[in-house]
Amino acid sequence: MTTLPMTAILSDYKPMASFTSPIQLLRGILALLTIPPLTAIVCLSAMTDVRWFRKSKSQAQQFPRAWGRILCRLANIRVRVEGGEQLDQAKPYIFIGNHCSMADIMAFSGYITHDYRWIAKKELFAIPIFGTGMKAVDFISIDRSHGREAVQSLNDAAQRIAEGSSVILFPEGTRSPDGRLQPFKTGAVMLAIKAGVEVVPVGFNGTYQALPKGKLLSRGGEVVLRIGTPLPTKNFKAKDKQELAAILQQRVAELLDECHLPVPSSMEAASISLPN
């Protein structure tokens, strides 16, 4: 139920490193083989639930949540969430996090209970079953091309968020090749400014070690999602996008273990103090 799984994983496959045990190897293979059928089952279940049973897109989020939890358990990825008590379940947020693994999506989908939606490029909504399932649970389509359509798509997404739809974004734009925090792009920041809702920094710790970029099979291990203090964005304007990107990068960095921090030179731009 996310914008991922099989094509993104296979696109940059590299040979798998040795495992600590044959059991973990088997668990990694089982999790990988489970992704396609489980995704189809979850999509069909969500569509059925929304159309014929409870007809609640909010309650149907249990299906992508189950998707994430099942895959994490199969892959021996043990997830712990810290700081979730700071969230107001009645408020919309834009969650902003570092992105270093497909395990980020599995862990966030499975263990963050706040009512939120994923943003997916519009082409994915055309995929049979998968796209229909995303529409059923109200995922947000975004046009990643250039021109008037892309601008309108961004405005529509911002309106959806302002009206109460929380979302999760990865401002680095792609997974980190080494697990370390990369510079934030301003596209996600502009969406936050347009929506005017609070931004919540999230630190994904341990996901790179569990499933590095370019690997097919999980190594397992503990993952910690650290939730930071929500940051208001109403005082930021479009001209402040670089400043806000640097602030958010710093906020996320504060939630990361040392192994995920960028080299010092790349953090210099993020050492901007919050405005009064």
From TrEMBL:
One GO BP annotation of this record: CDP-diacylglycerol biosynthetic process
Residue ranges the record marks as coiled coil: none
GO molecular function: 1-acylglycerol-3-phosphate O-acyltransferase activity
InterPro entries registered for this protein in UniProt: AGP_acyltrans, Plipid/glycerol_acylTrfase
Pfam families cross-referenced by the UniProt entry: Acyltransferase
EC number(s) on file: 2.3.1.51
Swiss-Prot/TrEMBL keywords: Acyltransferase, Lipid biosynthesis, Lipid metabolism, Membrane, Phospholipid biosynthesis, Phospholipid metabolism, Transferase, Transmembrane, Transmembrane helix
Pathway this chain belongs to: Phospholipid metabolism; CDP-diacylglycerol biosynthesis; CDP-diacylglycerol from sn-glycerol 3-phosphate: step 2/3; Lipid metabolism
Catalyzed reaction equations: a 1-acyl-sn-glycero-3-phosphate + an acyl-CoA = a 1,2-diacyl-sn-glycero-3-phosphate + CoA
Phospholipid/glycerol acyltransferase domain sequence ranges: 93-207
Domain notes: The HXXXXD motif is essential for acyltransferase activity and may constitute the binding site for the phosphate moiety of the glycerol-3-phosphate.
Family membership: Belongs to the 1-acyl-sn-glycerol-3-phosphate acyltransferase family.
PANTHER family: 1-ACYL-SN-GLYCEROL-3-PHOSPHATE ACYLTRANSFERASE
Protein name: 1-acyl-sn-glycerol-3-phosphate acyltransferase
Native species: Candidatus Electronema aureum
